[in-house]
C-alpha cells in the first residue's frame, strides 16, 4: 500500500514539474541571446571609449610632437613656406643658435628655475600655514577673510601690474628675480590657500587631537603628523605655482629691465625675430621644446599626487 502511494506521488510530481521544465528550457536560448547582446554592447562601449580617448590624445600631443620634431629641422626647412612635412636633413643647428643667443641659454634657464624655485617655496610655506589656520582654528571673521582671499582670483593680474611696478621700485626690488618671485607668489597664493584648506579639512580631527594629547604643540602636529597626510595637496599647489611662474611672460616682460635677468619666455620673445624681421621658427621650436621638458617631467613624476590633491576635500571625513 505504501509502495503504491509513493509511486503515485512520484507520478504526480513528474506531471506537475514537466510543464515548468519545458517552459524553462524554451526561455534558455532567449536568455543566452540577451546575455550575448549585453556583452557585445559592453565591448562596443569600451571600444568607443578608447577610440575617443585615443583621438583626443593624438589631438593634444600632436602640437608638442610637431614642435619637438621641427626643432631638428635646418633653419631653412623650418622657415619654408609652405611648411615641409619631411625635412631635407636633421640638424642641431637650432639648438646651437639658441645656446649662443644673448647671455646663453643656460643663463635664462637658470633665471627661470630660480624664480620658479623661490615662487614654489614661498607659496608652499604661506599656503600651508594659511590653509592650516583656516581649517583648524576658529576666530572672528575667519570666513570673511577667506572669501576676500578667494575674491582676489577675480582680479586680472594685468590690471595691477603698474601698482606692483611702483611698489617694487619703492622697495628697490624692481628688475630683480626675487621681486618677480614675490609677484608670482602673490598671484598663486589664493588658489593655493584654497587647495590646502580643503586638504586639511579632509584629515579627521581625531588624528590631530591624538598628537596633541601625546604632547605635540600645534606647529609640531602640523610638521610631524599633518604634512605627510596632506602631501597630495602640497604637490598640487607646488605644481600650479611652478607652471605659473615658469611659463608667465607679461609680468616678467614689464618688471625685468636687465637682459641678464630675463626668463625663458622673455628671451624667446626677443629671440623670435630673425633677419629683416622674419620669425626664426626653428629657434622658436627649439626653445619651446626646452621649456616644455621640465613641466612634462615634473607632471609625469607627480601626477599621482596631483590627482589626489585635486579631489582632496571633495568628501570630508
TrEMBL record:
UniProt domain ABC transmembrane type-1: residue ranges: 109-302
Identify the CDD domains for this entry. TM_PBP2 (cd06261)
User: Which cell locations does it reside in?
Assistant: Cell membrane
Q: Where is this region: Disordered?
A: 1-30
Q: Superkingdom of this entry's organism?
A: Bacteria
The record's section on Pfam families has: BPD_transp_1
Enumerate composition-biased segments (Low complexity). 13-26
> What is the membrane topology noted in the UniProt record heading this document?
Multi-pass membrane protein
Q: Which GO terms describe its biological process?
A: transmembrane transport
Compositional bias of kind Basic and acidic residues: 1-12
Question: Is rRNA-binding a UniProt keyword of this protein?
Answer: no
- Keywords on this record? Cell membrane, Membrane, Sugar transport, Transmembrane, Transmembrane helix, Transport
Q: Does the keyword Transmembrane helix apply?
A: yes
Any one annotated GO CC term:
plasma membrane
> Which InterPro entries has this protein been placed in?
BP-dep_ABC_trans_perm, MetI-like, MetI-like_sf
Tell me where the transmembrane regions lie. Answer: 44-66, 113-132, 144-171, 177-196, 224-246, 283-302
Q: Which PANTHER family match?
A: MALTOSE TRANSPORT SYSTEM PERMEASE-RELATED, MALTOSE_MALTODEXTRIN TRANSPORT SYSTEM PERMEASE PROTEIN MALG
Family statement: Belongs to the binding-protein-dependent transport system permease family. MalFG subfamily.
Q: What does this protein do?
A: Part of the ABC transporter complex MalEFGK involved in maltose/maltodextrin import. Probably responsible for the translocation of the substrate across the membrane.
Q: This chain belongs to which protein, by name?
A: Maltose/maltodextrin transport system permease protein MalG
Please name the source species. Answer: Pararobbsia alpina
Amino acid at each position: 500500500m505504501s509502495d503504491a502511494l509513493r509511486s503515485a506521488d512520484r507520478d504526480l510530481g513528474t506531471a506537475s514539474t514537466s510543464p515548468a521544465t519545458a517552459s524553462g528550457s524554451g526561455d534558455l536560448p532567449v536568455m543566452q541571446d540577451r546575455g550575448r547582446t549585453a556583452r557585445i554592447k559592453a565591448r562596443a562601449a569600451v571600444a568607443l571609449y578608447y577610440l575617443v580617448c585615443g583621438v583626443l590624445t593624438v589631438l593634444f600631443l600632436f602640437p608638442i610632437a610637431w614642435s619637438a620634431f621641427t626643432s631638428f629641422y635646418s633653419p631653412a626647412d623650418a622657415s619654408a613656406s609652405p611648411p615641409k612635412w619631411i625635412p631635407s636633413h636633421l640638424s642641431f643647428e637650432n639648438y646651437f643658435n639658441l645656446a649662443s643667443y644673448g647671455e646663453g641659454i643656460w643663463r635664462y634657464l637658470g633665471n627661470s628655475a630660480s624664480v620658479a624655485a623661490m615662487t614654489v617655496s614661498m607659496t608652499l610655506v604661506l599656503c600651508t600655514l594659511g590653509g592650516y589656520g583656516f581649517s583648524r582654528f576658529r576666530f572672528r571673521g575667519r570666513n570673511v577673510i577667506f572669501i576676500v582671499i578667494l575674491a582676489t582670483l577675480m582680479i586680472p593680474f594685468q590690471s595691477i601690474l603698474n601698482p606692483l611696478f611702483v611698489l617694487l621700485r619703492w622697495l628697490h626690488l624692481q628688475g630683480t628675480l626675487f621681486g618677480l618671485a614675490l609677484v608670482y607668489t602673490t598671484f598663486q597664493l589664493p588658489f593655493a590657500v584654497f587647495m590646502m584648506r580643503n586638504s586639511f579639512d579632509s584629515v579627521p580631527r581625531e588624528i590631530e587631537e591624538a598628537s596633541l594629547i601625546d604632547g605635540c604643540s600645534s606647529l609640531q602636529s602640523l610638521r610631524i603628523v599633518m604634512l605627510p597626510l596632506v602631501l597630495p595637496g602640497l604637490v598640487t599647489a607646488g605644481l600650479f605655482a611652478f607652471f605659473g611662474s615658469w611659463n608667465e611672460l607679461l609680468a616678467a616682460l614689464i618688471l625685468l629691465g636687465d637682459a641678464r635677468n630675463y626668463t625663458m619666455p622673455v628671451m624667446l620673445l626677443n629671440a623670435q625675430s630673425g633677419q629683416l624681421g622674419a620669425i626664426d621658427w626653428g629657434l622658436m621650436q627649439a626653445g619651446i621644446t626646452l621649456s616644455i621638458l621640465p613641466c612634462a617631467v615634473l607632471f609625469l613624476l607627480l601626477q599621482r599626487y596631483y590627482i589626489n590633491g585635486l579631489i582632496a576635500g571633495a568628501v570630508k571625513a
